[in-house]
Amino acid sequence: DQQVKQNSPSLSVQEGRISILNCDYTNSMFDYFLWYKKYPAEGPTFLISISSIKDKNEDGRFTVFLNKSAKHLSLHIVPSQPGDSAVYFCAATRWRGGKLIFGQGTELSVKP
Amino acid sequence: EAGVTQFPSHSVIEKGQTVTLRCDPISGHDNLYWYRRVMGKEIKFLLHFVKESKQDESGMPNNRFLAERTGGTYSTLKVQPAELEDSGVYFCASSQGSRGTTDTQYFGPGTRLTVL
After folding, report:
1. Which of A19, A106, B2, B55 has the fewest CB atoms inside 10 Å of its own CB, making it the most exposed?
2. Which residue of B has its CA nearest to A103?
3. Residue-number span of the structural domain to which B91 is assigned
4. What CATH number is attached to the domain comprising B47?
């Protein structure tokens, strides 16, 4: 049972444009959501997070939006840079410090 | 500050053999997690230690997997005997715990296990 889904396995954008990565979840008990970025042969690197009591969190070029009623979150990267090319994983947890439930990942390619 | 380290980076074994993976968390982190990614799919939770105690082992696939964290520092994950479907990348993560100001999980580089 896939509780966190990233339906787009890949995304290609032009440098300088906006990248929008999407994530859907089914478990209404999830309280905290995270995005991780992963380069080949490396472990996932924490990028940004959002609590269920908020609908937006921003950190530099990265903004995460949460729509609880739709059980949907998205990661916006503006402007996109070639160094952002990586696999992005959405993750959710019922409590901060608990196990993370990951989506399948979206491979982002930012072309110069 | 050193990050999460894992050893070995790669392991190739034959079906039926035993393999032990090691994880050294960030110093001072009480929480230690094991995850696995199989065939490029999603990263799946295996288990969670708080210090030396198993907080949650709901993701352990079967009794061929044994995880330990003696003394609440490093952890080992033993697979015995290994099966073909155990192939994948095993990630370890750690987080500071209740004393810290954040519960962000920091991941190691992973151990790629190939069972032939």
Report:
1. B2
2. B42
3. 5-104
4. 2.60.40.10
- B42 chain-A contacts, CB cut-off 8 A: 2, 4, 89, 102-105
List the beta bridge partners of residue A102.
A91
B89 burial via Cβ count (<10 Å: 0-12, 13-18, 19+): buried
Distance from CA of A103 to the nearest CA of B (A): 6
Task: Kindly report, residue by residue over B8-46, the tens digit of the pLDDT.
Answer: 999 999 999 999 999 999 998 999 999 999 987 889 999
Candidates 3.30.2310.20, 1.10.10.10, 3.40.50.970, 2.60.40.10; CATH matching A4-111: 2.60.40.10
> In which band, very low, low, confident or very high, does the pLDDT at B100 lie, cut at 50, 70 and 90?
very low
Q: What is the pLDDT of residues A66-88, one digit of tens each?
A: 999 999 999 999 999 999 999 99
B110 in any annotated domain: no
DSSP 8-state class, residue A71: T
